[in-house]
UniProtKB/TrEMBL annotation:
GO BP terms in the entry: interleukin-15-mediated signaling pathway; positive regulation of ERK1 and ERK2 cascade; T cell activation
SUPFAM superfamilies: Immunoglobulin
Listed PROSITE patterns: IG_LIKE (PS50835)
Gene Ontology CC terms: external side of plasma membrane; membrane raft
PANTHER family membership: MICROFIBRIL-ASSOCIATED GLYCOPROTEIN 3, T-CELL SURFACE GLYCOPROTEIN CD4
Domain of life: Eukaryota
UniProt cross-references to InterPro entries, sorted A to Z: Ig-like_dom (IPR007110), Ig-like_dom_sf (IPR036179), Ig-like_fold (IPR013783)
Source organism (scientific name): Malurus elegans (Red-winged fairywren)
Protein name per Swiss-Prot or TrEMBL: LAG3 protein
Lineage, broadest ranks: Eukaryota, Metazoa, Chordata, Craniata, Vertebrata
Residue runs in coiled coils: none
GO molecular function: MHC class II protein binding; protein tyrosine kinase binding
Signal peptide limits: none
UniProt gene name: Lag3
Length: 158
């Protein structure tokens, strides 16, 4: 897994033997175990790493008015009960929420207002809730709705 994996040598002296994986990939899913020997004592810990992925079709950046499909999947083993998408959750009146049974979120004619933070939340039959945030970029025209602009003769038009 090198060079994506590291240990913080300075933290080891303070009893922190955390493993850092950057970036995490789908193939990193699984059980991790650490053993640390200090003098005559051996300490160990186990941790399971699960992965959640957000997939766009077509990939980011999205072009305005072209069909966009967003999916969210996780390595969690229980049955998926519900998938919710939250758009710009804490940004006031432009925030939106979509919840449905497992499937794909379709945005038929994405616009500039669809850009920004999207959070996918997966709820499972064992009561586990897993989420991931994705920053969506939309390429398009963010100008006046009327395509005619008038400018005084001799001035600059913007």
């Amino acid at each position: 897994m090198k060079p994506r994996v590291s240990l913080q040598d300075s933290a080891l002296r303070n009893g922190n033997f955390s493993l850092r994986i950057d970036p995490v990939r789908s193939e990193d899913v699984g059980l991790y175990e650490a053993w640390v020997k200090y003098n005559a004592e051996v300490h160990s810990c186990r941790m399971e790493l699960g992965i959640i992925t957000v997939t766009l079709s077509p990939p980011n950046p999205v072009i305005e008015n072209e069909l966009l499909l967003m999916s969210c999947n996780s390595s969690h083993r229980a049955s998926l009960v519900e998938m919710c998408w939250f758009h710009n959750e804490h940004l006031g009146p432009t925030s939106r929420t979509f919840c449905f049974l497992p499937g794909v979120l379709s945005i038929f004619r994405p616009s500039m207002s669809d850009a920004g933070s999207w959070r996918c939340q997966l709820r499972y039959s064992d009561k586990e809730i897993i989420s991931a945030t994705y920053n969506l970029r939309v390429l398009g025209f963010d100008g006046p709705t009327n395509p005619v602009v008038y400018a005084a003769a001799g001035s600059a038009a913007k």
